[in-house]
Amino acid sequence: MFEYQSNSHLSSRRNFLAHSFNGFGGLALGSLMANEAVSAKENSSDRLVNPFQARTPHIKRKAKHCIFLFMAGGVSQMDSFEYKPVLNQLHGKPINRATDISGELQGRLSFHHSCVGSPFKFSRHGESGRYLSELFPHLSQHADNLAFIHGIKTDNQNHGPSTLHVTTGSQFPGSPSVGSWVSYGLGSENQNMPGYVVIQDPRGAPTNGAAVWSNGYLPAAYQGTLLRPKGTPIINLNRPHGVTLEQQRREFDALAWLNQQHKKGREGDSELDARISSYELAFRMQAAAPDIVNIEDESPAIKELYGLDNPKTSGFARQCLLARRLVERGVRYTMLIHGVQIGGDSWDAHGNVKGNMTKHCKEVDKPIAGLLTDLKQRGLLEETLVVWSSEMGRTPFVNGGLRSNPGREHNSHALCMWMAGGDVQGGSTAGETDEFSLRSKEEPIPIRDVHATLLHLMGLEDEKNTFLYGGRVRKLTDIGGKVLKQIIA
After folding, report:
1. CA-CA distance, 186 to 51, in Å (whole number)?
2. What is the rounded CA–CA span in Å between residue 465 and residue 228?
3. Which residues on neighbouring strands pair with residue 122, listed in sequence order?
4. What are the tens digits of pLDDT across the range 203-214?
């Protein structure tokens, strides 16, 4: 241990550093504290005072709302939206002429495998001549409204990380979801409902559960609110039995005063701000939310349009119809999830891809087409961005010999998505996969480019929609994304 020499009036460099290392630590701590103070100051403004306040977009765009349709499990792109006739020619044979394949996909190809041709017929639709599978007879009528993105790459081909990558921009837990970023950037047009609503499959939750719609490190007010598709729309929302509206109003006013007293000296505490805001929002929602889920006032024609009259389509039909009603009431971002965990009720077709795709496409085709038709006839499609996605694509082969009812493996190089509404150029295309639908034919499209495009179509610039957290400026795309101008009108 260093011993101080008090009889020396001079100090060596070593002595100086030994005595002042705590001072350097103090300087570093002071710098960190200053950064946190700057973070609180830069991120507070109106977003923390009133997180639901509507805000001006960075750029002028038509879309004011977004409906994100997430198909959990990994939809097979070559059985839905990518026509690859060579797969039927090679059915049962190995794929030998694919080159420059790397990673896990190359590992799968190096083992014994068999090509699986699509069991479904494809035909052209609309003036754009878009090839669509016979599994989408209703959606195909909207071919000229859809813009497709092919060859999208995620960084992981396991369900958990890939689902997070598509829905939050990161394959690791803890990041804000896309809907949280949109709500953070634009606020809400309806102060009686959350700006971000999630309606999951009535059969259960997706992989990762609530992490799919989490606010991550953004203020807690921007987390998605789960709206149950049947029964009480939001748990514990109903007014307690025997309590009148006037009594509850007085209770909330008293609670608001106590919260404001507690808040003094705690400025910048986003969780406290969100909690205070949530009480007032909950009070207003008690009248608004039950009305939204009450679809009995919808006409028989509308119910038939979505497929509510058919047990096979009624589940997702209700989700889609509720999404339209949320748009009408100014909700900024609605996420609809079809598919439960991994299994028979998800799109994860390792076996019997024919049965899996037939079942799930039947469940969503008419409801989604009904949603697009309904939005368009009400004049809402122009101001609503509709996005279809899954967490990954599938391989054109199955490992091992070709067995009866073959399936497909995971493929993180060939996710296919489409968008419609707002400033989307219907009938356009970004990206293209190779002849096998293994991966992008040219430069792959990273998922961050899709996220940057989604933000752009909502009027948000990726580089400006940021949040200072942990001493680092954060954004949805992390290192930045490129807007896919090919699909923008």
Report:
1. 10
2. 30
3. 133
4. 999 999 999 999
